[in-house]
Batch of 2 targets.
Target 1
Amino acid sequence: MSDSFTAEVTESADASSALDAGEPRRQASSIEMQGLHKRFGADTVALNGVDLTIEAGEFFTLLGPSGCGKTTLLRILAGLEDADDGELSIGGRTITEVPPHQRSVNTVFQSYALFPHLSVRDNLAFGLKMRGLPAAERDARVARIAEFIKLGDLVDRRVEQLSGGQRQRIALARALVCEPDVLLLDEPLSALDAGLRSQLQVELLRVQKRLGMTFVFVTHDQQEAMVMSDRIAVLNGGIIQQVGPPRDVYERPVNAFVARFMGHDNLFPITARQGDRLTTSLGELQAQSPGTGDLLLIRPETLDLLAGEVTGTNHLPARVSERLYRGSHAEYCLEIGDSTLQATLNNRGRHPPEVGDRVTVVVAPEDLVTLSE
Amino acid sequence: MSYTGVTPSARSRGMVRESRHLLFTVAPGATWIIIFLVLPSAYLMGVAFMSNGTYGLPEMPLSLESFRRLAGFGFLGWSPGNLYTLFRSLWQTLVSTGLVVIVAYPIAYYITTCREKWRPIMLLLVVVPSWTNQVIRTFGWMNLLAPGTPLSSLAEGLGFIPPNMGLYPSNFAVTLGLVYNFLPFMVLPLYAAFEKLDTAQVEAAQDLFASPVRAFWHAVFPQTLPGLLAGIVLVAIPAFGMYVIPELLGGGKGMMLGNLVAMQFSGGANWPLGAAGAILMLIATFVGLFAMRRIGKRLGGGEEVVI
């Protein structure tokens, strides 16, 4: 395992210099969005005032459910959609009014949108040809990107002969070969099966780190977003709910929507509060720095289960009502009074609680956070 | 020796059964083609090389007289009448097919941009006129283009035609009739080509620095080429041999090859000459098809354009 990892890193340094050879690469560019609004028809609001700064060289993810406006935002960045209101600048240059073919931004489309009437090679060279690069330079750059993405002999095939994963990589190469200021990716992995998907996640991340290019990535999959991103913006109803590194968004969601979207179910209304002692339907719990929210979030992996009834701070008596065995870990449903609490525990060499067992749930005060509805 | 576990005799029995199946499936079609295509064509071919007898019926001995007549050599020396007819046919085919492409392309594109539930209705509107008899529709155009009608008066007012002439009969009327008649045959294959097109590809082209015009030319047009070529074949071949429209809208100076051929089998009564004309049409059609295939292969970027 560790051997292959080292090999990956050294090789990446080589390939990066291969792509850079010859000409100086552009500096990565930052993106500035101010007050972006977009409506479709009379009553569909896609974006409702988006202010966002994406740093140069960042792997930035727009995350949200379908219809949240993430794809619209990406299309506005590409120039394929015009914002009704607001300003957009890339690398300090305002491009709100610039048509797509004059923006140094390239997109990897969800459907890949490869040209079926052209060979893979001509697909890769399309952007360079439209930019008016001479044939010799086009060939050289296509050859370089083909080596960089390890396309091998795919370059000489026809598009219809390619599998989904291969098409995805051609679509990526077709955008990267133009060396844009910003690369946009519209759910590029959503059509692939799970195994290929995680393999390409790693590959995409590696490419981005090596090139140091600004990537804006759209997905509805919070796991994918957490794996890939330097920072995540969670969108809902055309409004940015939270922006931050994956760990912040997951561990300290600012509201119930973000918490639920990140996969949290353990949200309990706070009925009474005395200093840092919070009362919910579970009972009284002590939090280290609870904040001012009116919902208590308990992450399932922060819980510990003790056999039998044990008393102490943040010790809650419970009954195991359900257990889902998942190999590396198990998920438990715990009944505490009328409430249900989810817990995730690693399957280590001990006797795990069974359904029907009486247990005591323990949670550390520093793991408790509150948020607002 | 037999790895498949099938003995040689069983295999040959299988082959016999297979060839019997083949016979049953192919025979009806083949019989049809032989009786109604191969034999008449062979007969026509033979007639073309015979002499013109009494009442225009073919007679022995064999001769090339019909082809000489077709090329314009008659009793009174050479006249260019037949060649005019040939070139008029080619010219009318070229112009009307070109116009059909120009009219059909935006229609087909427009239909693909409509909501999905409207598309079948729009296509139906394109096709419905061709459900009416062609002769009746052509008579309709006669009434629309005759002297004194609003269209003719407008053309007169604009100085396109001399007073009291009308737009019909004329070569213009024939072109118009051909374009009107063959429009659906171009719209349908073009629509099929447009519908297969992923609109994301147009966006991808623009994203890859193509202006809207270049995006059309490099991403859209090549992909509609198979439909376009199929449409051209569907329009140009029947237009070249068209009989009804030039007969009704063309008058004496609008005659096309189809009319020349038809005349030899009726009023003019010279079967060998008519047969020679039919063979000429066949040759011209094959040359045209061959050229389309070459163009299709070159422009189609390797995609097989089947005609």
Target 2
Amino acid sequence: MASITYRDALNQALAEEMARDDSVFLMGEEVAEYDGAYKVSKGLLDRFGDRRVVDTPISELGFAGLGVGAAMVGLKPVIEFMTFNFSLLALDQAINSAAKMLYMSGGQIHLPMVFRGPTGAALQLGAQHSQSCATWYVHAPGIKVVTPATPADAKGLLKAAIRDEDPVAFMEGELLYNVKGEVPGPEDGDFVIPLGLADVKREGSDVSIVTNGAMVHLALTVAAKLEKDGVNAEVLDLRSLRPLDVDAILATVRKTNRAVVLEEGWPYVGIGAQIVSIIQDEAFDDLDAPVVRVTQADIPMPYAKNLEVMAKPSVQRVVDACNRVLYRN
Amino acid sequence: MAETRTKAPSVKRSEPAKGLEGFSREQLHSLLRDLLLYRRFEEKAEEAYAIGKIGGFCHLHIGQEAVAKGVIGPLRADDYVITSYRDHTTAIAKGVTPRAVMAELYGRQGGAVGGKGGSMHIFGADVGFMGGHGIVGGQIGLATGIGWAIRYRGGDQVCVCLLGDAAVNQGAFLESLNMAAVWRLPVIYVVENNEYGMGTAFKRVSAVPIVERSRGTGVPARAVDGQDVIATWKMFEELVSEVRAGAGPQYVDVRTYRFKGHSMSDPVSGTYRSKEEVERKKESGDPIGVLRDRLFEAGLLSQSQLEAMDAGVRAEVDEAARFADESPLPEADQLYKHVYREINTHGRLFLDGREG
């Protein structure tokens, strides 16, 4: 096992799946000759040729639709959005075609495809380039949503997503591409992490921080800080938002009896809202305190550095939330 | 016949058989029979809708039958067709049975997709009918992807993408034709130009005619009289073989006319087009009338043959309606079926408390 970046882990996953199955192809803006806007597809054009690694015009709706159409007749497209922000132009195809095709065709046509690319706030990119897009996708039954936080998860989950028989929105953390971690290489066998399995990234006993994607790293920082304060926080990384590992959420709540739900996006009808609803439905009696949510401020992302910091979930806000559910202060 | 005349015309043309060369009497009769079948099918759907057996939106193809036959008829069984929500007769033309289409309109188990799709979502993947799609222009990108897959696999099939005239104003149209041209995909984009997008005349929302709208993409364009099934068939026979041989994407303005309202909820005429205009079009450009008169004039069809033909298709349509009526409603266990093909071992896919 080697320590590689999140970016290289994704690259390995793509290369392994493309080598394994000729029906897998990668298509998107700048994925081929430019090696990908974030260099995720570096070297794939040389290895697999322009039949399978394809630069598109800037036509998100068009090439998302093309991907769906190709999947309708059995190919396994990996459609890259340079960022999921731009995929809002393609939401008609993602929601009205991809998510609904199997149902409205009475089971005749399934879509083994992946929409992938970065999501979430980056650094001072302003309102249109800094947002978490997961809720747009997770809202629609028929599509699956995956948000890996670590290099190993990025690799194992992308391989699972490509092999899944349903459309998967695979949302990478825009600020995670340089994160390094231990990842099983091709020599370590076929490394696949099943969708729908959450992962306890840090064991704890006093409070649970339930989160996903880039926020996992924030939660781990918070947990380290709380530890100095004598509080032992558990960090549950959901990894995939649909399927959602409800058993793991209930298990951590039953263990610590206190939960903070941390999400990168906006609060209203957010992922955290759903998780709080599940906890109060199914683990109400296990709670020693009301669940608290930490989200992005309910505003478009500002550019100015000080305002941006105030808008994003921060270590301090999560620490405060943990203290609140622990009735400290 | 209620809507469609069966009387022989009084005016004789000078060269009645001109343009019919290459078609046998049997082929011509088969064409006419299919057009009649589509007409009677849609009339039956209209009737069933009126008495509440069909719900929701229901867009009839009456007046546009020759497009279904002339465009789809020349295709091979393994070619693909994809279209908008005005999809009943195009589905039948590609090989979905009338009874499966009718039962789908009725929302029954025996429907093409088991009652889950309805009028706007007929599918017949086994016969290359890739669906009725409900968002204007939504199918254009999908067709492009089917064309992509054909090329990817090195196949020689063709994908025909039917779209309404109003769909050319969607961004998806420009994006798709551009990509199809860049990659020379085997897709024929066929505008069923019935002159109106719901209640808006095309000329009110486009500065140039339909046929010119592919110009900026490099996809070659042509036009044909879509009320003339022979002309349409001939053009597509040639075009399909060219595309099969590698000619790349094509764009065709098929000029037709809708004799009914946009959907069953809409008036036939009124604020956006006059009753006289509709009557004039029905008189001069009924695709069934056009073919029937030519066959009469060429001495290739008799009154009694036409009547027998009509009785035959009426019986077929009645049988389809009977089948639909007798087909059971979908079972309750269908509700959550086909949302996902793969139910993952871990985690919940449905968040409505069902699995809780």
